[in-house]
Amino acid sequence: MTKTYSEVEYETRVNLAACYRLMPMFGMSDLVYNHITARIPGTDDEILINPYGFMYEEITASSLIKINIKGEILDNPHADHDINQAGYVIHSAVHGARHNIGCVIHTHSRAGMAVSTMKTGLLPLTQTAMRFKNIAYHDYESVAIDIDEQARLVADLGMQDAMILRNHGLLVASPSIAEAFNSIYWLEMACRAQVDAMSSGAELIIPSDAIVTKTHRLYQPDVRRPFGLMEWPAMLRYLDRRDTSYKD
After folding, report:
1. Per the database record, which ranges form the Class II aldolase/adducin N-terminal domain (predicted)?
2. Which CATH superfamily is domain 7-247 in?
């Protein structure tokens, strides 16, 4: 990395690049599509996003594009790459409405898309799924390039930290990159388990509402801990053992 950034922006860039690199390792990337954005701490409207056309495994700290909530490019190291309009519409809506959100992840994973088509939505079949008892839903409105969809998307998300975009995919919104990665990983695993269980044809066991509510409460950040923060250093070590170029 040759360009000089503030300490807080550099740290955000490195962690966001790490998050991008981890996603395909756990089967949560979609060629050059989808997005992970992070707000630069200390700013109200500056966020980092991937250059459109890069695969997640190519993202580095210095390759990320800095934009503002209005979609204006503040720093783009790639003369021949721009940002994905759909990514801007979805992510800027969440960042603009929820100033406590530091990171937004949107995926088109196979399991996430499958569950997004089910009228039942995400079922509390596993402990992992019960974490998302109050998950939000947003009805499909075609490719997300219309600015006027932002208001409906934000209204549907409300104050939840995860949402299923019907007939589309998954979205999580968290205070930090570490918490967002943990949340999308667990949501993805919940979707995979549901697809596997329903595909088996076996009769399914759904716990009582009381048990689901109790379990959900135990995963709230103010009850035990904010999940993802303790795990993140291990994820960085996992990545460092394989490739450290995300820091460049």
Report:
1. 14-195
2. Class II aldolase/adducin N-terminal domain (3.40.225.10)
